[in-house]
Specification:
- This protein is of the alpha+beta class.
- It contains six helices and four strands; from the N terminus they run H-H-E-H-H-E-E-E-H-H.
- A hairpin with a 5-residue loop joins strand 3 and strand 4.
- The longest helix is centred in the first third of the chain and has 109 residues.
- The radius of gyration is 54 Å and the shape is rod-shaped.
- The termini are far apart.
């Protein structure tokens, strides 16, 4: 074999070795590339799944918060409705009671035209005189009622009170200006004490009982 042939074989062997080495490097590079690509795909998938899980979690949290807010609003609304209903009920109840009390006042005014009102007036004077418990008292009333306070009526009231107290009682018509409200007031002769027996005072005195009576009749279950 000639030297050239030997050189050719050496060169061919070297080329083959180089090609084999390059191929090995390329194969390793491809494997590494495939590995990296697969890892990237796996990471991408994991990230996608993690992102999806995160999105679902955030949506669930948002739904829970929204549901909680709705519940709070519903509770507040229910509470507001209950409070408002109670306020309206109390307002209507008070208006009804006030209307009834006003009707009572109107009936008392009309009662003055009744022939029996003179006796009612006398009984109110006796009640006040008994409460005042003074040997002498001045009787006052509204302008219309003062017209009924005759000397005879005052004497009858004084006599009946005297019997009740066991001592003499003297009643006179007051020289003060007429009352602006219906009913009577008695002032002791020394002007130190007085007894208010007007209808407005009597109704105020028994207002709680009157309101309870109206409530029991109209509103109590």
């Amino acid at each position: 074999m000639s030297q050239q042939s030997k050189d050719n074989l050496v060169n061919k062997g070297s080329q083959d070795n180089l090609d084999s080495m390059i191929k090995g490097i390329m194969d390793d590079a491809q494997k590494e590339a495939d590995k990296l690509i697969n890892e990237a795909k796996v990471q991408a998938q994991e990230r996608s799944e993690a992102r999806e899980i995160q999105i679902k979690r955030l949506l669930k949290e948002a739904e829970d918060k929204a549901a909680a807010q709705v519940k709070i609003i519903e509770q507040q609304s229910a509470s507001s409705i209950k409070v408002e209903s109670k306020r309206i009920y109390l307002k209507v109840r008070d208006e009804i009671i006030q209307s009834i009390l006003k009707n009572v006042e109107n009936e008392l005014v009309r009662l003055q035209d009744n022939k029996d009102y003179r006796k009612i007036l006398k009984d109110m004077i006796i009640e006040a005189a008994f409460g005042l418990n003074s040997p002498e008292a001045f009787v006052n009333a509204s302008a219309k009622e003062r017209e009924m306070l005759s000397p005879a009526l005052l004497k009858e009231a004084a006599d009946e009170t005297s019997k009740m107290l066991g001592k003499a009682i003297k009643l006179e018509l007051s020289k003060e200006a007429p009352l602006l409200t219906q009913g009577v007031t008695l002032t002791a002769g020394d002007h130190r004490t007085a007894f208010n027996n007007t209808f407005s005072t009597r109704m105020l005195r028994y207002q709680s009982e009157i309101r309870k009576l109206i409530y029991d009749k109209l509103f109590k279950d």
